[in-house]
Design a protein that fits this description.
Blueprint (H helix, E strand, L loop, with lengths): L15 E5 L3 E6 L4 E7 L6 E5 L8 E5 L3 E5 L5 E6 L4 E7 L8 E6 L3 E6 L2 E7 L13
Antiparallel strand pairs: 1-2, 2-3, 4-5, 5-6, 6-7, 8-9, 9-10, 10-11
């Protein structure tokens, strides 16, 4: 049974499975057994994060690839793009600066974690190894 957003009256999407590969991103509706979209991604897909960034009203699927992050809507269209310093290995959306909005944290092969508020990098943290996973801790 479809869920309805009480504020807008719109149907919320069913469970969507996102599959990233070295050449593409595929969104698949598991419940309806159908493809939602297929998108060629020139920089490849090393990792994925899904959710709201900043004050966005609709979630995006963020695909981290070769020195870039792209954000796709449920329509398969590219709604976000930014450059990172190296190959992206990990990403997470969380309220990094506690302003009430999610930032995008991106870990890469150059040992850095970059924090993006929308498409602006607001912080860069250097580590001693490749960033393979980022997980937020909540209070």
């Amino acid at each position: 049974q479809a869920q309805v957003d009480s504020s807008s009256g719109e149907k919320l999407p069913s469970d969507i499975l996102f599959i990233g590969s070295p050449e593409s991103l595929r969104a698949y509706n598991v419940e309806n057994n159908e493809e939602v979209f297929f998108k060629e991604v020139a920089d490849g897909v090393n990792c994925l994060a899904v959710g709201l960034l900043g004050d966005a009203s609709s979630p995006l699927v963020f695909a981290g690839g070769n020195c870039s992050v792209q954000g796709f809507g449920m329509d398969g269209e590219d709604h976000y793009w930014t450059v990172t310093g190296d190959n992206v290995r990990s990403m997470v959306l969380c309220d990094f600066n506690l302003d009430g909005y999610n930032e995008l944290l991106v870990g890469s092969d150059d040992f850095d974690i970059r924090v993006f508020k929308n498409d602006e990098m607001i912080t860069e943290l250097s580590e001693t190894e490749i960033i393979t996973a980022i997980t937020p801790l909540y209070r």
